Amino acid sequence: MKNPVPQVASLLLEKLLCLVHVRPLPAGSDGEPPPPAPGYYDTSCFKRGDLLEVPRTLFIHFGIYLGENRVAHLMPDILPAFTGDRRQIQQVVTNKRLILGVITKTASIRVDTVEDFAYGGSILVNHMDRLFEDQVLSSEEAARRAEKLVGATAYSLLWNNCEHFVTYCRYGAPVSFQTDKFCETVKMIIRDQRSVLASVLVGLASIVCLGLAPSTTLPTIFIPFFLWMAG
């Protein structure tokens, strides 16, 4: 029978990467690929205060629609810690900016077009309402809460991510179901202390196969440390 520990450790690596919203870039690229052209999405079906949900392969990104093709959403970003220049900050967040934001726990609640926010993904509207039933605030209240929070903010993978932001705005309570799933995965792994060694081996293997990069090196360092601290 195969030892399940390496497979579980690999799953944790995948979960951690999806929580920080890392999107792989073409080799040698330092920025994000261009978003769809304006008009790619039909915004006439969106109403101010709607909760927009973009499912990805490994994660879900969330935002609050403000009207006029504008979406407020929380993104890890190191740049607001160094400059107040809105023109620089408003540029598309690259993976380097994003990962450094995760490490330093800095982020910004920013307003982007629907195209920049969704990046070609399909959009679900108010899909989470079914989970909160009578807790849904008025659409105008949700939009106003989002607008009030726009700007630099602290970031935490587990306690203050994009899902916490939108659930606070629309339902009045910051929660994250993605975080809950991640924590359940961690609980499963820390039952076996061999997971620490297994996660190190998985991380080293990913560095050998994929090269030395933030997306491979950082999880190799932080996942074993997190498991060791939790164990």
From TrEMBL:
InterPro entries per record: LRAT, LRAT_dom
Membrane topology: Single-pass membrane protein
Transmembrane spans: 196-229
Keywords linked to the UniProt accession: Acyltransferase, Cytoplasm, Endoplasmic reticulum, Endosome, Lipid metabolism, Membrane, Sensory transduction, Signal, Transferase, Transmembrane, Transmembrane helix, Vision
Subcellular location: Cytoplasm, Perinuclear region; Endoplasmic reticulum membrane; Late endosome; Rough endoplasmic reticulum
Domain LRAT: 51-178
UniProt key word Membrane: yes
GO biological process, one term: vitamin A metabolic process
Enzyme Commission number: 2.3.1.135
Molecular function GO labels: phosphatidylcholine-retinol O-acyltransferase activity
Classification via Pfam families: LRAT
Functional pathway: Cofactor metabolism; retinol metabolism
Signal sequence, renumbered to the chain: 1-31
Function: Transfers the acyl group from the sn-1 position of phosphatidylcholine to all-trans retinol, producing all-trans retinyl esters. Retinyl esters are storage forms of vitamin A. LRAT plays a critical role in vision. It provides the all-trans retinyl ester substrates for the isomerohydrolase which processes the esters into 11-cis-retinol in the retinal pigment epithelium; due to a membrane-associated alcohol dehydrogenase, 11 cis-retinol is oxidized and converted into 11-cis-retinaldehyde which is the chromophore for rhodopsin and the cone photopigments.
Family membership: Belongs to the H-rev107 family.
Protein name listed in UniProt: Lecithin retinol acyltransferase
Upper lineage: Eukaryota, Metazoa, Chordata, Craniata, Vertebrata
